[in-house]
Amino acid sequence: MSDLSVKEWTDQVIKQEEIDKYLIDGKDFIDRANINQDLEQQQDPDKQYIRDIMQKSLDIERLSPEETAALINVDDPNLWEEMYATANKVKEKVYDNRIVFFAPLYLSNLCVNNCAYCGFKKDNTEEKRKILTKEEMQEETRVMVREGHKRMIAVWGEHPKSDIDYMVDCMKNIYDVEEDAPYGPGTGSIRRININAAPMSSEDLRRLWEVGVGTYQVFQETYHKPTYTKMHPPGTIKGNYRWRLYALHRAMEAGIDDVATGALFGLYDWKYEVMGLLYHAIDLERQFGIGPHTISFPRLMHAAGSKVAEESPYLVSDEELKKIITILRLAVPYTGLILTAREDADLRDELIDVGVTQTDASTRIGIGGYSDVKEQWDRLSNDESQQKEDEQQFILGDTRRLDKMIGDLAKEDIITSFCTAGYRCGRTGEKIMGLLCNGTEGKFCKLNAILTYKEYLEDYASEETHKEGEKVLQKELDQLEEMEFFQDKPEMMEEFYNYYNRIEDGERDLFI
Amino acid sequence: MEKETYLSNSMDRMVDSEEELQNKLDQFCEIIGNKYDTELYFCEILGKRWSYIAGPESSYLPQGRCKVTDKYGFMYKKEDIDSELKQEIKSQAKKLIDNYEQ
């Protein structure tokens, strides 16, 4: 935790040289005129052109800005149906049919910034401020682990009290937690911590790298600079558009090869934001050889103390959100797509079918929010607790517990994965990108999804979810037998079944 | 014994070279790969993360993970590398890494 005053600390965060080094001829990679021109020139695209673009996505090639703009401008509902179906095919080709679950852990809502739309903004006096102690964060983690979670995204506001020293301590404290499973013989723990934290210097990012950070996630919020400036007051750290725009570049340079971007849809025109996300991916590819590990697309929602959502002319409808996800899946086929519990249950179930790869459940976004419901969760299978508007960054649309959501997905024949194998086998960054693009990673995904699903069912599933899950497992195992890829790999399959049987006998954390 | 001698001689030459560790490990993987018709790659260990640093970039499915030091380990194909050979690779890799870090 920094000893500097808030002002002293704030003044030393941004390192201008760590922005300038990535600029090309003094310019950043978001050229407003170019984006507007792309969108303007690709009006009324030809059907065959769109189908050719879809084929390119199926070949797992990242689309150009012109091609992406053409997809954005499709009006024909029948063509959109084709695009939805193709997006799902692309996802299955790259990631198989699984969905990966995680949960967020909010560690502090102290913040020096003043973002117009955010419940954590410093001028929001209704927000109850809190930063978790070691004991509190470990208790939060125990509740999450007891739900069955293996992946976490840790979240902090930007503040000297939650600086890099605090973040590093958080990661170590969280990784230290082990908790017995409620039903089976397993002892659970968080196997991968991804983080959502403010942009920082390469030096600080290197420290996160050294303690084993998973993915480093920074959302640009909006790529439209005038809107960005309006939403993030000048004079605050977050008011510096380019410091944020190059946060992931600095992470790459610090060695963190899994980086994640996103935009807060609803601040500006969604079509522009999709183009911004694409240009971000392109610039990462150009400067580091790989694009983002994941892209997120949260929608602007009501938050305590914020009127932006009520007043924004750019709020995104459910249909538009479905289009956004579809276009991103087609435009950046190798990337993971994250849909969160901001969205309500029915919509989430529908959107998963157009290419989403990760989502959350049993989500609590208040500071200390998991400990608040611990006793209730021990008694009830549904989350009937109230959300605390004065302690949350935004309000959730879907408060389903993990067990319920896994059960619901099982009824749709969707397997849940808690796989963290890539992160622990060197399959990250450039290596995983290659494997994703040639379809090999999807095969790992399938095997590890089955193994981790089996673990979950044994250790954490209710009777009903266990029953539904066993049907999914059997279908997955049957598919393995039929897949050509595995037919000439008898040793691997022997190893897989060996692991599967050992999990049934009580061993845990076996992965391919 | 033949495996051990081959590895040992190749490693001695590599240990003495002034290359960066990543280059040495790349060469190490190439020697093992050619000799035993297999593939392996090295990772840096950072907390729970194993991050790829050297070895072939080709796509294959590793099944084994061997920790060499607190900081480095390698992934390998179990069907090609038995436990005796794994121990020998581990021992030679450790020698190379320890020597580099001194």
What does this structure look like?
The complex is a heterodimer of chains A (512) and B (102). Helix content of chain A is 49%, strand content 8%. Chain A is α/β, with parallel strands linked by helices and 512 residues long. Among the domains of chain A are: 32-88, no CATH class; 429-504, no CATH class. In chain A, helix 6 packs across helix 21. The two termini of chain A are 39 Å apart. A four-stranded antiparallel sheet of chain B has the order 2-1-4-3. Chain B has a single domain, classed as Beta-Lactamase (2-Layer Sandwich). The longest helix of chain B has 19 residues, at 83-101. Chain B is α+β, with helices and mostly antiparallel strands. In chain B, strand 3 and strand 4 form a beta hairpin. Chain B has three helices and four strands. Classes of the chains: A alpha/beta (512), B alpha+beta (102). The interface between A and B is medium-sized, with 33 and 21 residues.
Give a brief description.
Chain A is an alpha/beta fold. Chain A contains 24 helices and 11 strands.
This entry's quaternary arrangement is heterodimer
| Total count of domains of chain B | 1
Low-confidence stretches of chain A: none
Question: For the terminal residues of chain B, how far apart are their CA atoms?
Answer: 29 Å
Mean pLDDT of chain B: 85
Properties at a glance:
heterodimer, A: alpha/beta, eight-stranded parallel β-barrel, 11 strands, 49% helix, 8% strand, B: 102 residues, alpha+beta, Beta-Lactamase, four-stranded antiparallel beta sheet, 3 helices, 4 strands
What order do the helices and strands come in, and which of them pair?
The complex is a heterodimer of chains A (512) and B (102).
Chain A: H1 6-11, H2 17-20, H3 32-41, H4 47-58, H5 65-72, H6 77-95, E1 99-108, H7 134-147, E2 151-156, H8 164-175, E3 179-180, E4 187-188, E5 192-196, H9 202-210, E6 216-217, H10 225-231, H11 241-245, H12 247-253, E7 259-262, H13 270-288, E8 294-296, H14 308-311, H15 318-331, E9 336-339, H16 345-351, E10 358-360, H17 369-379, H18 402-411, E11 416-417, H19 421-424, H20 429-437, H21 440-459, H22 463-482, H23 484-487, H24 490-504
Parallel strand pairs in A: 1-2, 1-10, 1-11, 2-5, 5-6, 6-7, 7-8, 8-9, 9-10
Antiparallel strand pairs in A: 3-4
Chain B: H1 2-16, H2 21-36, E1 40-46, E2 49-54, E3 64-67, E4 72-76, H3 83-101
Antiparallel strand pairs in B: 1-2, 1-4, 3-4
